[in-house]
Amino acid sequence: MIRLLGRTLSGRVLVAGVGRVDRCDDGAGRLLARRLSSVPGILSLDCGDRLEDFTGDIARLRPDIVLVADAVDMRSPPGSVALLEPGALAPATIDGHRATLAPAMEYLAMRTRATVLLLAIQPSRVADGVGLSAPVEATVGVLADLFTG
Q1: Is the separation of the CB atoms in 97 and 20 below 8 Å?
Q2: Under 8 Å CB-to-CB from 85, ≥6 apart: which residues?
Q3: Residue 98 — very low, low, confident or very high, per pLDDT cuts 50/70/90?
Q4: 112-144 pLDDT, tens digit each
Q5: Inter-residue contact 63 to 112 (CB < 8 Å)
Q6: How confident is the model over 85-109, as a mean pLDDT?
Q7: Residue (of 115, 98, 123, 94) closest to 32 by Cα position
Q8: Which of 2, 8, 82, 97 is deepest in the core (most CB within 10 A)?
């Protein structure tokens, strides 16, 4: 059982990291998934920047909960985190790979009967470059600790 942002997550939890690691903080979700790849009891999958390409892989893992980890501009301080349902994704926050994120999440929920939530991480910087900003790196570390502790 995992406690995350006031919610208790139980059963088979899968963290699906989405983003572009060559766009600074946009890679936060993928880096979280990579950090969790060797944690016993946690399923993780690096989905690149196209969650929709991994729906079959996710369904085969038969998760009870899917957390889609991604950098999302929520107009919050850098490193802030929120758990959002697919319908909470405002069109204004959707760009690039996020254009298909909500429909892919809804499809996953239907196909797997799992609870599918967006683990949104507020980026500080999304631009060409590699590496996370200090606040987003700290958040990814705290999130990884929540799954391992």
Answers
A1: yes
A2: 117, 118
A3: low
A4: 999 999 999 999 998 999 999 999 999 999 999
A5: yes
A6: 71
A7: 123
A8: 97
Residue 11: left (phi > 0), alpha (psi -120 to 50), or beta? left
Q: Is 136 in contact with 117 (CB distance < 8 Å)?
A: no
SS percent in the chain: helix, strand, coil, step 5: 40, 25, 35
Instruction: Report yes or no on whether pTM surpasses 0.85.
Output: yes
The helix-helix angle for 28-35 and 134-148 (nearest 10°) equals 30
d(CA 127, CA 45): 24
Amino acid at 52: E
| pLDDT tens-digit series, residues 65-84 | 999 999 999 899 999 999 98
Say if CB 67 and CB 28 are below 8 A apart: no
